[in-house]
Amino acid sequence: MNKLSIPVRKFDAVIVGAGGSGLRAAIQLSEGGLKTAVLSKVFPTRSHTVAAQGGVSASLGNSEEDHWHWHMYDTVKGSDWLGDQDAIEYMCRKAPEVVVELEHFGMPFDRTDEGKIYQRPFGGHMSNFGEKPVRRACAAADRTGHAMLHALYQRNVRANTQFFVEWMALDLIRDDSGQVLGVIALEMETGEVVAFHSKATVFATGGAGRIFYSSTNAFINTGDGLGMAARAGLPLEDMEFWQFHPTGVAGAGVLITEGVRGEGGILRNSTNERFMERYAPNAKDLASRDVVSRAMVTEINEGRGCGPNKDFVLLDITHLDPATIMKRLPGIREISIQFAGIDPIKAPIPVVPTCHYQMGGVPTNYKGQVVNEDGSPVPGFYAAGEVACASVHGANRLGTNSLLDLLVFGKSSGDSVIEDLRSGNIGLKDLPANFAERTLARLDRLNTQTGGANVNETRLELQRTMQKHCGVFRFKDMLAEGVARIVDIEKAVARTEIKDKSQVWNTARVEALELDNLIEVAKATMVSANARKESRGAHVRDDAPDTPANPNGRDDINWHKHTLWYREGSRLSYKPVIMKPLTVDTIALKTRSY
Amino acid sequence: MEDREKLNRLRWRCTRRAMLEMDLLLGEFLERVYPSLTPVQAEAFVDLADMEDLELWPLVNGARASSDPVQAEVLALLRNVRVK
Questions:
Q1: For residue B40, is it within any domain?
Q2: Is the pLDDT score of A36 beyond 90?
Q3: What's the pTM value of the predicted model, to 2 decimals?
């Protein structure tokens, strides 16, 4: 292949990722008359949005009185005041509109007897600024994400969006002025590398939950958008904040619902002790997620973990009547048999705290424009969904706000593209002469590497290091050591070797390229977490404990700010949290307690 | 398409799915069971792998039964897979 002349395809807009946010942005662009391409590693309805079951929140007030301002309050509080209040106001105000639009796209929401969208209660959803629970979550049974993807996909088919399925985007194209001019992508079926030259590029690539050894995320979530942005010189924001679930099956990551403990499940350590009695004498095994997760990690760290490596605890339901298990928890029994090799009627299930959701990402504003450190937009570049950090989730995400984020910022990013084109802020500029050079060098290195590192082993090492050194509960010395270890792993990633050098359907190559993205996210996470010396939201350190001066270990004087990590030199910078909403008063800092 | 290419494409479709559960199960099945399937069973597996996760999952976990005998055979094998 002539290195200077890879094929170029021109579009008005290119969207990378075909989950909820990518499909929502694509509707806006295609229906706006733009020639729009959507690139996806998989067929759109196989995106990880499918796994979102809980619902999407909107203050429709269909079941009882509700208000977007109360939703905003819950979101700010959930974020532990790290969320930007302009973006949070925007999202909560827009929620009813985007949910009703989705209904018009054909989304089969559950309904009330009067035919309105049915709303159910959800953790953290309150009325009147935290007073009492409110029914705000809209759902389509337990298939909300799946139904949403189908509705959005059908609408895109109608709008003639052009899909490029089983393509992997490799790198952003940026010129010297910093403007984004599209992406370089690899077609898996042919091995061909093609430039998608566009006026606007929207990242909707999802999260990077696969950086952790124990993760509920599907294998597809390798942080491709984050890796591409970091390599293009853009910062990643608040990457130390990851939401964990206390009970994933050890080794597999598959989620065991809280309902198991609700039915009487007990957590035990290697001495068979019901250890939650020491950490939460009243609530015991039903304490909140973060309390349970921290207790589990403490047990493991203090040598009371189970198994040959003492690296998990046990969730025991053997004392329950088998008939109860068969009746109330049949799905969980099936999961335990298939993914832990254990029938929970006979033996306890090995579990560990498991990574679930990424709060940080590529910095954007509430319009879905990617922004520089000073808040100015990066011309031609937009992002929405889990890859983006608007920031609405701050230090911890409120349940059902992930699907809302997809809809609101997918739409706003599409609207911003149209507006920026109309106002002449962006347009089709010539590609720089050397635009593909670094990508082709990366591919060439991979093709010619000898005596290098094995991709699977290196990825596993990365995941184990993140889990051990930067998991749900963090320790000063472990973090510092983790930074050094991740630097070593980066060296191995830089010399991965694949045996298969073929062009057509070379999945080994694709997996090596995914690892190039995972390592950027892992570095950003470890370095950002090591530097943030407080506890806030999902980032909890044992050297930043709960004290009267710093309740929950939160240190607003020194750490009420967003982290920005730059790939070059693994440099950190910080920017203020936007505390001024668009129209209402600031929701002032206070202690987060439920 | 060569056999290697077909197998790699199938591997991608088995291990880049919407749900982690299905990545794990189909990936494991492909490595351990798929090579010993009869051609007819292999074809049925490819069809199953083409299904969406929320259609396939109830068939795998026994919540729904398949009316196709070959498909039912493959599902029984799939259901016996243990991911360690």
A1: yes
A2: yes
A3: 0.96
